[in-house]
Predict the 3D structure of the following.
Amino acid sequence: MPQQHHKFTVGQEVSFLPSASDFNVPRGTYRIVRQLPLESSGYAYRVKNVNDGHERIIAESQLAAGSGLWVPTPPPRPAAPAKSRR
């Protein structure tokens, strides 16, 4: 039997593909926070909605690849002190 692997990686942005029973789950882009162990129903992930920050667990079968890996934006560099002219 071939070894199975997670389809998505931590930090990757994905789209949620809702089922009929997921009427209360916001659609849109989610970021993979954590890969969960293989269960009898397949892989699942802890994901975070990029708009409202809410985290939930979603099955791999309900996710589609999104825009790629999230790369954090570095904080702005502090401005250099102004040179005084005398």
